[in-house]
Amino acid sequence: MAISSPLLLSLFVLVLPIVPNSLAQSNSNITLGSTLTPVGGTTSWPSPSGDFAFGFRPLDTDPNLFLLAIWFDKIPNKTTVWYPGGTQPVQPVQSGSKLQFTSDGYLSLVDQAGQEVWTGGTSSTVTYAAMLDTGNFVLANSDGSFSWRSFDHPSDTVLPSQVLGLGSVLQARLMDTNYSAGRFILNVQQDGNLVFYPVVQPSGYSYDPYWASSTVGNGTQLVYNETGSIYLALANGKNFQVVSAGSKPMSMFYQRATLDPDGVLRQYVYPKNGTNRGWSVVDLQPPDICQAMFTKTGSGVCGFNSFCKLNGNQSVDCECPPHYSFLDPSRKYKGCMPNFPVQNCYAEGTEADQGLFDMVELKNVDWPLADYEHYQPLSNDLCRNNCLSDCFCAVVVYNDQDCWKKKLPMSNGKVGNYVQRTLLIKVPKGNTSQIQPTMSKKNDKKTWILVGSVLLGSSAFVNLLLISIIIFISFYPSHMRRNEKPGPDPSTIGLGLRCFTYGELEKATNGFSEEVGSGASGVVYKGYLHGEGDTCIAVKKIDKVLRETEKEFAVEMQTIGKTHHKNLVRLLGYCNEGKERLLVYEFMSNRSLTEFLFKGPRPDWNRRVQIALGVARGLLYLHEECSTQIIHCDIKPQNILLDGNFVAKISDFGLAKLLKTDQTQTNTGIRGTRGYVAPEWFRNLGITSKVDVYSFGVILLEIICCRRNVEAEIEDEEKAILTYWVNDCYREGKVELVVDGDEEAMADMKRVEKFVTVALWCVQEEPSLRPTMLKVTQMLDGATDVPMLPEPSYNFNLVR
Hints:
Layout: H1 6-15, H2 18-27, E1 30-31, E2 35-36, E3 44-46, E4 52-58, E5 65-72, E6 80-82, E7 93-94, E8 98-101, E9 107-110, E10 116-120, E11 126-131, E12 137-141, E13 146-149, E14 157-158, E15 163-165, E16 169-175, E17 178-188, E18 194-200, E19 205-206, E20 211-212, E21 219-224, E22 229-234, E23 239-244, E24 253-259, E25 265-271, E26 280-285, H3 289-292, E27 307-310, E28 316-319, E29 324-326, E30 336-338, H4 350-354, E31 357-363, E32 365-366, E33 371-375, H5 380-388, E34 395-399, E35 402-406, E36 414-415, E37 422-428, H6 436-457, H7 460-480, E38 498-499, H8 502-508, E39 515-519, E40 522-529, E41 535-542, H9 553-561, E42 571-577, E43 580-586, H10 593-598, H11 605-625, E44 640-642, E45 648-650, H12 690-705, H13 717-720, H14 722-731, H15 743-746, H16 749-762, H17 773-781
Parallel strand pairs: 38-42
Antiparallel strand pairs: 1-11, 2-8, 3-4, 4-5, 5-6, 5-7, 8-9, 9-10, 11-12, 12-13, 14-24, 15-21, 16-17, 17-18, 18-19, 18-20, 21-22, 22-23, 24-25, 25-26, 27-28, 29-30, 31-37, 32-36, 33-35, 34-35, 34-37, 39-40, 40-41, 41-43, 42-43, 44-45
Helix pairs in contact: 11-12, 11-17, 12-16
């Protein structure tokens, strides 16, 4: 239904309940003082047509418990559409309870012990109640207005003619047969954005959203109109479609939309012609919850260690991997556990345990998080054996010499043809009882340790000896070790980083003779680690480290050392000797994105696409997936390097705290590099990860167009600045101009248009309007739709 103006929409919303109200008054008014009871007497109040009823329903799981509810009364399964409590639903009551429509004009639910457990309405001017044919139960005043409506206090379902204002929430139930607060909510936020959130129970804390309308400042209310369309009405007079029943008229079908226990808003229809075909799904949002859900906290759609699978009937199924079973088969959302003793981590038992486990291959499945180590290059066999010898490792992902190790518990699992992953999961060999002896050995060892400790504590001589040794060890470093080589910093132990001496790196680089790059943070030299397969390395000499950050160098190394991702340049080690600060990286043979894009013939379009996706995934990892969030602050083509296979890798991440302020400023006093700097730097606003999103948007345009962000030789400013020109082409419907002469890109215009739109979203002036890198990657990958760009007149202008 098209809404031409906010005024017309308001009139429509006001008129909807009035028509059924007059029908209710003439047919089924409920008088003050009326009472409902679960058994005996009156148990429900029907609507005039009998389509709906309000009252007590026995639970399918326990007929001795009763739920106060509204339901479809003419269909066999009496589907519930409302129950009291919202985000804090009222628990079912026993027989002996009652609902009173009090003489003061409000509803009071009293349990069998006489305790009031819920109330509805508070107005003293109420004269009657009515169950309307819309499914709306109301308390009405003498003038026909409503002082309370069930439509204003939804549970998990909305019905045709229902409108949810700003601040309204749908709370999924825990299970189809359990009306406790579930794990997902739909929130019509006060800021105008319609957002789906996973929540943790019983606290109700919201995790990262998995779907949003992106209508901040524009949305006004969620409307389910009588043609079967559910949309978010916008302040500019337009509608944002959420779901629609299409050609399923209300005259022939019952309709409802329910936020189901798996977090999906499904729109259902049921034929009124008497055939018991059950409810069928006509539309849903999001279309594939398994792909939409990606939360760095929490388990995802299914529980930990399980996989989410979307079936052909649009339902979600949760599956366990081989040799795992559900913690509770009746509540699969609780996840899976290994049905065998996991590998023993006790030092003396590790080798014995290795021979008791094997790796089983799983295709088209993935747990995208839970990585804790990444190796490259590594063969398939070494990757497999590395996991078998690591007691923490439960799964490895192997892809093109990249090996990622994952540990329990694992989240956001998914399975489907769209998942281009092959996993190797650790499972027991043969009879799992073989694993038990090692565990017994561990317990025996603990016993000996306990006995030894008692004997040791009883010996004064041994105690004196221990004290002497401790004093000697404490004295020795300060007097005897001054001339030794600097060893690894304790804070980097376990990170896989090597602590080099300055002499080692001077030799490896032949006296720092071959310079391969330079930037604000220092000069980069090429070198070789001789005797170690002649590994080619890049050594960065960091200039002018801040005095106050010298003490933080090891801490920063610890942060950088924990970052392992295919699209990040890998840090191999460092030197922290005297005033020298050097970083040792893997060498990128195809140099930087600058040389790739601007210093030769136009590169292959498909290769550019993969580079763009790689940069996006690298930034997503830095922002949301590594243990400590890293905001790069200087994303530019010079900091995007390409390996021998042209895989894009981000460099210079995590260095912001190590550098002098003037090392990362332009002559404008702003950190970053001119042309890639987000507008908030100029407005002294708080800096967030959105500054990297802005820079990525500029780089994405450069990748698409194969031209620099600023072409000084072009006199026309609108064409000289890439973001201005591409924005004008987009607004004029001439996106093909940005890839003019590029036959490969011209043949893939759908992707070009998508990439351009995403890039323009990234360079929005207002940081809150820019998508997160998670949203960016989802849009670029095609996992979610790319919304239309807002009109410039609506204060969404690109910075100029």
